[in-house]
Amino acid sequence: MSALVHGGDVAAFQKAFPQARLPIMDLSTGINPHAYSDHTPEPMLAARLPDSAAHSALCETFAAYASADRRMVMAVPGSQSAISLLPYCFQQGSVAIVSPTYNEHGAGWVRAGHRVHEATLEACLGAAPDVLVLVNPNNPTGDTYEREQVRDWLSLQEAHGGYLIVDEAFIDMEPGCSVSDMVTPEHRLIVLRSFGKFFGLAGLRLGFCIAPPGLQKKLASMLGPWPIATPTLEVATQAYKDTPWIDAMQVRLKTDSQRLKDLASASGLLVRGGCPLFLLLQHPQMGHVANRLASDGIYVRTFPDHPDWARWGLPADEASWTRLETSLQNLNLKGTSHG
Predict the structure, then answer these.
(1) Which residue from 193, 231, 265, 277 has the highest number of Cβ atoms inside 10 Å of its Cβ?
(2) pLDDT value of position 337
């Protein structure tokens, strides 16, 4: 299977596999397949420019949800926008990225002219970089770090005048591991958060950069006015207030994740890692597995640097679970070696 740069590009997948069974079953992204749908904005909202009161209301609601200081919270059009722009907020220097991880982090810092080192956590800490980038939980391995560990690494960075950036795009299922509340004007800590992954509304393009005011000012100058669309402001504000939905979804996703683990293991795949929104699976013939799934119209995320890996998201409904199970049974992987 030809690896795509990112998951979620169904059109590119169909172009690569024109004979794939329809409809395409997209398991490539790690986005919640049970999207928040308890609030539908009025169509005319799309005709209005975003207003400051609605923007402020969203930031206040998110700050309460994330236990963050409202003064440190900045809404951005998807956490990817912050990943792309933050490198230009720093003088060119040394950047260490705990890897393997989401490849846009490295690409962004390289584009901005920084010296980028991608390595293990231990090697990154030992390098004493100007900026240390950590994804928690990590994408795609699912490695998750406790708050106390991250606090210690922040202290190490601050001891030599460095910054720590923590990408918490998948933290909503592990809120006790978040360090969003640790961001203060005094700390050299920046936290990135995502709305679309847990709430299943990635197309609304919303994220948050929790950072000291001086850095917020630099980022805001690059984003310009009206960074968040009016419908997005309304839907996200309501979603972050909907505690019953959030609590029920956390339970549902953990149940679905365990079901996917059980299915993958029973089918002869090694569960190498993951979090409740996706699994990282391993098999020496993963390229063959992905191609066979693709012919059945099932799209999973492969990795050119790790050809025995694939990231699988959660099926959306019972028909999708049955379709995946049938496809795996037809593969008959049980008994093959994991290498």
Answers:
(1) 193
(2) 53
